[in-house]
């Protein structure tokens, strides 16, 4: 609470400081609009000129003096002889340095050792007409140079008068004697004093002018932050608005201080109540995930419960170096328990930066996926399915503990590095995956639809045995009475389509009707990956071939299967590749009733595998 009060005091002090600064600058710039005489201006100088620091344009600050106002550009001081708003030009006369040092008096008041006029880096440039006049000047012959070691600048000007203005230094060829000057340096001094030279600026290239135009539309006064390195533009309040601010600033400060005080007290009370409620909730209420799981499954059938501290210690505080994968719902870390056992720990994603409504939705969705995976994995036991070893439901995160499969995913072997898998190994992986799918569809009551059978969710052991994992999207096919009594040829559950692009059943996506045949479609795409080595979706392919299922079916129908079959297994083709290709084609049929079920797939793959083994034995005998 004391911290909140301290924050309110700092907030109040900051407001007073800001209002004071705004008031000071606004009054200063507003007062500059008072009419007075400042030659060559008949009244107060218009924008971009200003006589008040921090107002107008930072390069157009002038000093009013008699008989002419002065302006400083790059440490050189000039008198303003004339100003033209139509052509956006100034006629300037440089002020001469009184310290001549026995040289010509054509020296300019400057703190820089370079006594020539260089406007580079400012918004001004010397007009072409002034440069043209200088280009015609030359001393009359014979040229008598002064002592160049003492007055080097004089010698340079006599040889090329255009050097006096940077940008007019072009050397001209021989000119006629007409118009030459016997005392060129004195002529230049008199010329610059009486007539000066013209400079121009381009309003369209300067952001100050565009910003000031917008500021004036709002009845503001144009200025800049004179203490800022880049001198940022500021639009000050007009005189009328400033007067209103002055009249109400005390009232605003008082209201603001009281508001900050009340807000600090309210926040302190709210924090105290929230922490107290959270503490009481954690003491008196049981974890919602545990309650949900016990309502749907007896405690004896549920996997062990880990504490958050146990899994945090096992993963070295979820060290990024221990991250072994990222799924759609969480990051997976390698964990080592106290007994030395290696396990995979999946930490369901947190959703930072979301709105309060989105955060609650994401929490509910993560909890649903979390409980769903626990219920399904705790009821299955198959050598080709990932085993669930436990879970942790904690306010700090939801975690699942699985088997650690040491050899990466099938996607890694097919796409992430050079694959050395023979056709025999690929066919064996296809059969093991089909056996896992058959178990889910026919050996469990109610059946389980995985909904995300992909090469990234098939994990490979060192001996090339596989385990299917990631059951976050899985659904139990619990049919309603109306569905069971319907006359349709297959049972289904109505649910929103979810899955991975490229593997998602288009019939399910269109009709929202989920059946086991949706897994069969995804499995068919995995078969195509095994045969081609290609990704299920690849944006580098042409648009019509981006989805592997469409590319594969097209080539198969045209009799061009050899164009997509992985060259690594083409030499092993004894009829088995063609037979598996035909099976994959049936699995991705548009009408799900035309697709084989998991039992048919297992039977067909076993027949293909037996024929492949017989063929290999015949080759060995030869």
TrEMBL record:
InterPro entries from the UniProt entry: Kinase-like_dom_sf, Prot_kinase_dom, Protein_kinase_ATP_BS, Tyr_kinase_AS
SUPFAM superfamilies from the UniProt entry: Protein kinase-like (PK-like)
Residue ranges crossing the lipid bilayer per the database entry: 249-272
Stored PROSITE patterns: PROTEIN_KINASE_ATP, PROTEIN_KINASE_DOM, PROTEIN_KINASE_TYR
Annotated organism of origin: Brassica rapa subsp. trilocularis
Protein name: Protein kinase domain-containing protein
The Protein kinase domain, residue ranges: 318-608
Residues spanning the signal sequence: 1-26
UniProt cross-references to Pfam families, sorted A to Z: Pkinase
Keyword terms, alphabetized: ATP-binding, Membrane, Nucleotide-binding, Signal, Transmembrane, Transmembrane helix
Residues engaged in binding ATP: 346
Upper classification of the organism: Eukaryota, Viridiplantae, Streptophyta, Embryophyta, Tracheophyta
Gene name linked to the record: A07p038190.1_BraROA
